[in-house]
């Protein structure tokens, strides 16, 4: 069965990684961990990459020279809240570590926004798996990596056909050529 990987880049000791399989659109966690930094995350992910189809990363995989991305504006407009932060306001561990791992791993890559997805979508199979991961680890890093992997699976398997990079008119630069941002509904 195909693996999908997830990565939640964070600061020192706050990098979540996950490997999942998807059965009938429901995630099954194969392995997960919280690691020290992007180098350790990359080593962990490389072990699973040989049999993985794609990776989802909780980071910006496309940047705009305008300081703001159309996908973020559309998400803010539709859902509100303050979890969608402007690209110029983000800290380097999230943006740089995510981009480094995305480029070096060499798998098809998908942007993910786990916290927003869990807040705005109803009845999705990932919610209980996320809550179990957070309860077991005491932090959300592994849970976010699981959601990122599941989002990648939904996009890669064309269960979600919306791509927030290509479906919205924007002047963005992909960090990794071919990167996509799958979403479960049209904005």
Task: List the SSEs and their pairings.
Elements: E1 3-8, E2 15-23, E3 26-35, H1 38-49, E4 52-57, E5 62-63, H2 70-79, H3 92-105, E6 109-111, H4 114-120, H5 126-137, H6 141-156, E7 162-163, E8 173-174, E9 182-183
Parallel strand pairs: 1-4, 4-6
Antiparallel strand pairs: 1-2, 2-3, 5-8, 7-9
Describe this protein's structure:
With 187 residues, the chain is an alpha/beta fold. It has one domain (3-62, 92-168, 175-183): YqgF/RNase H-like domain (Nucleotidyltransferase, domain 5), CATH 3.30.420.140. The protein has six helices and nine strands. The strands form three sheets. A five-stranded mixed beta sheet has the order 3-2-1-4-6. Strands 5-8 form a two-stranded antiparallel sheet. A two-stranded antiparallel ribbon has the order 7-9. A hairpin with a 2-residue loop joins strand 2 (15-23) and strand 3 (26-35). The longest helix is centred in the C-terminal third of the chain and has 16 residues, at 141-156. The chain is globular and about 40 Å long. The relative contact order is 0.23. The model has no long low-confidence stretch (mean pLDDT 92).
Number of helices: 6
Q: State the oligomer.
A: single chain
Q: How many beta strands in the DSSP annotation?
A: 9
Gyration radius, rounded: 15 Å
Elements, N to C (H/E):
EEEHEEHHEHHHEEE
Please tell me the overall pLDDT.
92
Output the keywords.
187 residues, alpha/beta, Nucleotidyltransferase, domain 5
Can I get a quick summary?
By secondary structure, the protein is α/β, with parallel strands linked by helices. The chain has helices at 38-49, 70-79, 92-105, 114-120, 126-137, 141-156; strands spanning 3-8, 15-23, 26-35, 52-57, 62-63, 109-111, 162-163, 173-174, 182-183. Helices cover 38% and strands 22% of the residues.
């Amino acid at each position: 069965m195909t693996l999908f990987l997830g990565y939640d880049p964070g600061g020192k000791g706050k990098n979540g990684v996950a490997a999942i399989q998807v059965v009938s659109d429901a995630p099954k966690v194969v392995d997960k961990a919280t690691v020290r930094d992007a180098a350790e995350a990359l080593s962990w992910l490389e072990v699973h990459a040989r049999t993985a189809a794609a990776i989802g990363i909780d980071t910006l995989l496309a940047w705009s020279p305008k300081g703001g991305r159309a996908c973020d504006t559309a998400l803010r407009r539709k859902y509100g809240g303050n979890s969608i932060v402007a690209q110029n306001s983000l800290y380097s561990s999230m943006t740089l570590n995510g981009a480094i791992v995305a480029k070096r791993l060499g798998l098809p890559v998908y942007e993910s926004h786990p916290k927003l997805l869990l807040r705005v979508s109803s009845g999705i199979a990932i919610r209980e798996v996320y809550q179990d991961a957070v309860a077991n680890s005491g932090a959300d890093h592994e849970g976010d990596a699981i959601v990122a992997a599941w989002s990648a699976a939904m996009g890669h398997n064309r269960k979600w056909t919306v791509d927030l990079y290509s479906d919205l008119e924007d002047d963005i630069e992909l960090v990794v050529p071919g990167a996509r941002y799958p979403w479960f509904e049209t904005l």
